[in-house]
Amino acid sequence: IDDKIEEIKKTKDVVSLLELLKLGDDVQRASRRTIKAGKGALRGRPYRRKKSVLIIVKSDKGIGKAAVNIPGVEVSLAKNINVEILAPGGHAGRLALYSESAVNELKNLFK
């Protein structure tokens, strides 16, 4: 995706971008929460949230605050990427959107 994504400052703009990319169904899937089974629910941690889209950028110029209120959507810097972010819970295959500069940053990191 173009580097202009890093400069988005409003949540409604992020939502419209995700709808434009046909990712609205995935965001809706992550908006629901379920009640956990087991002792964690009794100890004050009753709910589980699903993960949705991961947006990877080189520098956060506003996208981080804009996407924080969308359930399941996370923003991460390219230099901070690790396996736990890309595959939460050890389950590979999380949907990720990369900005062009983030891809170049990752190329430079792993040379």
Please characterize this protein's 3D structure.
- The chain is globular, with a radius of gyration of 15 Å.
- By secondary structure, the protein is of the alpha/beta class.
- The chain contains six helices and five strands; from the N terminus they run ααβαββαβαβα.
- The protein has one domain: Ribosomal Protein L4, Chain: A (3-Layer(aba) Sandwich).
Q: Briefly note the CATH topology name.
A: Ribosomal Protein L4, Chain: A
Number of strands: 5
**Cα-atom radius of gyration:** 15 Å
Strand order of the largest sheet: 4-3-5
The top level CATH class name: Alpha Beta
Question: Share of helix among residues?
Answer: 25-40%
* Proportion in β-strands: 15-25%
Largest sheet: 3 strands, parallel
Instruction: Based on the coordinates given, report the CATH architecture.
Output: 3-Layer(aba) Sandwich
Supply the CATH superfamily name: Ribosomal protein L4/L1
Count of all domains: 1
User: Which structural class is indicated by helix and strand composition?
Assistant: alpha/beta
Number of helices: 6
Mean pLDDT: 92
H/E series:
HHEHEEHEHEH
Q: Per the principal axes of the C-alpha atoms, what is the gross shape?
A: globular
The end-to-end span amounts to 22 Å
Q: Stretches where pLDDT falls below 50 for ≥5 residues?
A: none
How is this structure best summarized?
The chain is of the alpha/beta class and 111 residues long.
Kindly list the characteristics that best describe this protein.
single chain, 111 residues, alpha/beta, Ribosomal Protein L4, Chain: A, 3-stranded parallel sheet, two-stranded antiparallel ribbon, 6 helices, 37% helix, 15% strand
